[in-house]
Write a structure and sequence with these properties.
Chain lengths: 324, 324
């Protein structure tokens, strides 16, 4: 095999209905389906070169050579993709995020979506969006949602074959904004992969999962109808359900900081006085403040005035993973 | 009937395994059993006088004449007790709390325990502790736990007859302290009685209730064995389960303030460095910091140094409701 190369770009996504806990940790088959929106202004760009002269995979992230768990996870994922072609050639991967890693903005989603698309393309494999999504899921569950564009549903499915994500509304369908209030740019205390394995230790996880299809239906309807009031209620509920599981796991996981709670309350008070705004919090302390784009300037200003907010990143609905 | 009077004193209690949600709101039959400790230094003292010349009940709380819901609830409870004797004579009730009302220290528990004992006694009714506990429960669920002394279990029961509280360890069995970190002495946003009716609107409440007997067993064993490590784990889990329900109710109830979270995290970090200390939070923002009495001086000092802590009240295991 000769040298072959491809560069792909994918956006992270913010989950409105969250993924937490796997039925199968190795295949990353989720316990419940989920809903998300891609974030246009944020992206991971990954250039991948298969090179027969390489003795092993090389992975540079934001210019820093990776080793240990970070490299291992990429190699494992490439092994699955190489297996599709029956090749064993190693790759040099150069990946750049334009946003801070591991602070509640799911960098692993855009990273494994871009890696999957770049690797598949460099190997010359023809693959449907559905199969790309399935494959990206193996690297990081939520990466399957960063393959299609806009507003996305990840079907829980029953096996590897039917657990994948599809777009149900284009980015232009509803001009929402995600104003990400950064309160801490440090590393996560506990990464999502470990967190997912703890989900089942909460006495509440089963109930959260059993209620998920109901929330998915409400959330999809709210997006289809551009009904912000309904969206606000269901995404805040779902975010609280996620953190309820985390804080009642064994051991408990705490991602909220005092500043997180302060922003959550501010958002609710702004909504009460008429601004279409709602919060959702991932596995980190930052608050994703979702609003209609008309209000994003005002929301950004209000957030920026809060002393514990270090930065506000304003993003809009993004497209699918693509070759560049 | 002539004038008759009695004065009773009862302590509030801090729940280690919490009560939230009723099977029967009118009889205050709880969805799950609970465990608590009475707080010796805090009390409600209630002097009650049945006086045939009164045209209606008069209720003075901390020197202030009550009306509306506050008076209504006392009258309703007295009506149940008057019904036991078939009398309709009205009462003058003078009640004093030596602690701030409605800030997460359950004043309704000590209030209805003291009221029940005073009223029953003034009417000359002979009643077992069990029946007093059942009766106090009708006024405020957690009041049934303030009738017996020390460490108390409230049996969920199936009907009015078998839902009552008993002591399973004397106050002297284990010298714990409850260092109450006051972060807000304002009124609760939503009172417990309304909160209980919202519990079933959380998709998680059923799972919390189903797991309650397991937590009760662990908590009782931990207290019997004076096993602080086991106690810390189960009370923090149970507290988080309570707030998980509250924050996922419809509408959601938020009692934690940013300062609440800050204290919860501080407590966990102190425990990691060897201090036997754990948190529990009721339907309010204040944090009950439970520790062994040997450590209470150090814990009080540490809490007092935190800028958002307005006051620290240190309490120890208290006795049963009694006539004074």
């Amino acid at each position: 095999m000769t040298i072959s190369s491809a560069t792909a770009l994918a956006h992270p996504n913010i989950a409105f209905i969250k993924y937490w806990g796997n039925r199968d940790d190795s295949l990353r088959l989720p316990q419940n389906g989920s809903i998300s929106m891609n974030l246009a202004e944020l992206s991971t760009r990954t250039m991948l070169t298969f090179d027969p002269s390489l003795p092993r995979d090389i992975f540079d992230l934001n210019g820093t050579r990776q080793s240990g768990e970070s490299l291992h996870r990429v190699t494992n994922h490439l092994n699955i993709i190489r297996g599709l072609r029956g090749v064993s050639v190693h790759a040099h991967i150069m990946s750049e995020n334009n946003f801070p890693a591991d602070a509640g903005i799911a960098s692993s989603a855009s990273a494994f979506a871009a890696l999957t698309l770049a690797a598949v393309s460099a190997l010359g494999i023809e693959m449907s969006e559905k199969d790309l999504s399935r494959l990206a899921r193996r690297g990081s569950g939520s990466a399957c949602r960063s393959i299609p564009g806009g507003y996305v549903e990840w079907y829980r499915g029953n096996t590897d074959v039917d657990s994948f994500a599809v777009s149900f509304a284009e980015p232009g369908h509803w001009d929402l904004a995600d104003c990400i209030a950064i309160v801490d740019i440090g590393q996560k205390k506990v990464g999502s992969s470990l967190g997912h394995t703890l989900a089942k230790s909460s006495p509440l996880q089963e109930a959260r999962v059993l209620d998920a299809d109901r929330r998915i239906d409400i959330c999809k309807q709210a997006i289809r109808n551009r009904d912000f009031t309904a969206l606000a209620e269901v995404i805040e509920l779902d975010s609280n359900l996620l953190h309820a599981i985390m804080m009642t796991s064994h051991p408990p996981l705490y991602y909220w900081m005092p500043a997180t709670l302060e922003i959550m309350y501010a958002v609710q008070s702004w909504r009460k006085t008429g601004t279409p705004v709602a919060f959702t919090v991932d596995a980190g302390p930052n608050v994703h403040v979702i609003c209609e784009s008309d209000s994003s300037k005002q929301v950004r200003q209000r957030l920026s005035k809060m002393p514990m907010v270090k930065d506000v990143i304003v993003t809009h609905p993004g497209g699918k993973a693509r070759l560049v």
